[in-house]
Design brief:
Number of domains: 1
InterPro entries: Glyco_trans_2-like, Nucleotide-diphossugar_trans
Structural class: alpha/beta
Shape: globular
Oligomer: single chain
Mean pLDDT: 89
CATH architecture: Alpha-Beta Complex
Order of helices and strands: EHEHEHEEHEEHEHEHHE
Low-confidence stretches: 253-260
Protein name: Glycosyltransferase
Helix content: 25-40%
Strand content: 15-25%
Domain Glycosyltransferase 2-like: 8-155
CATH superfamily: Spore Coat Polysaccharide Biosynthesis Protein SpsA, Chain A
Pfam families: Glycos_transf_2
Number of helices: 8
């Protein structure tokens, strides 16, 4: 193993007091122990800070930072990236969960396959944590143009080796929506290779009032990604939005989890 084998986990937090403990516990329980969890508070108005600081006192791998003003997930994640000290970068939103071997299996995968940028399969859970028995499987590989029409990569499963990827490529554009997809596109556009890791290692929580739960908002967010961030032509944007709509509908026809 390399001298620096630490995983830096970046978690933006905003009013997550009801779920943040479960999320943090899923990191503490990882079989892989060389990690730091950087929780960046986007000026929460609930007691998220109090909960996080209690964990910070108990485990020196947990670090709390609060932004000066509410700035959005992109700014929060970029601050976490700036504060990170690990070889590997992983993202975990404040309401999602990792399974026990997630980090261990991803570290092994990138080293055994000389991979740069990976995402594992993940399953959907309800807001109360109950399983929907539905999984999203990653493609073995994906290109920039393919990702434009199929924004399947999810932050909960992303894992990046900074010995192979320039850290500057992980700096997210300062937009309120779609900054994660824009970052994956940014990496692919600059020659970074993607590998899909076909193991279910994480759970993505479907929160009813989340940005992604509203289909119209998702459509607007994706259109802005094409036109406002990627600066695609109107014709290419229309072509991509049809591809996006098709893949979004396919993704909702989830494979039943049969313990495969």
């Amino acid at each position: 193993m390399e001298m620096n084998s630490k995983v830096s986990i970046i978690t933006p937090v905003y009013n997550a007091s009801g779920l943040i403990s479960e999320t943090i516990e899923s990191v503490i329980n990882q079989s892989y122990k060389d990690w730091e969890l950087i929780l960046v508070d986007d000026c929460s108005t609930d007691n998220s800070a109090t909960i996080i600081k209690k964990y910070e006192e108990l485990d020196n791998r947990i670090r709390y930072y609060c932004l000066e003003c509410n700035s959005g997930a992109a700014v929060a994640r970029n601050k976490g990236l700036e504060l990170s000290t690990g070889r590997y970068i992983a993202y975990l939103d404040a309401d999602d969960l990792w399974y026990v071997e997630k980090l261990e299996k991803q570290v092994n995968y990138v080293n055994e396959n000389n991979a740069q940028f990976i995402c594992c399969d993940y399953e959907k859970i309800n807001e109360d944590g109950s399983k929907l028995n539905k999984i999203v499987k990653m493609p073995k590989s994906i290109t920039y143009n393919q990702l434009l029409s199929n924004t399947i990569i999810q932050t909960v499963g992303v894992f990046i080796d900074l010995q192979k990827v320039n850290k500057k490529l992980l700096v997210m554009p300062n937009v309120r929506r779609g900054q994660d997809s824009a970052t994956w596109l940014q990496m692919l556009k600059n020659g970074v290779k993607f590998n899909g890791q076909n193991e279910v290692l994480a759970a993505y929580r479907r929160v009813n009032n989340s940005l992604s739960s509203n289909k119209l908002n998702a459509l607007k967010r994706t259109w802005y990604l094409y036109r406002g961030v990627e600066k695609l032509s109107i014709f290419k944007s229309i072509r991509c939005i049809f591809g996006w709509a098709y893949h979004a509908s396919i993704k909702r026809i989830y494979l039943k989890n049969k313990g495969e």
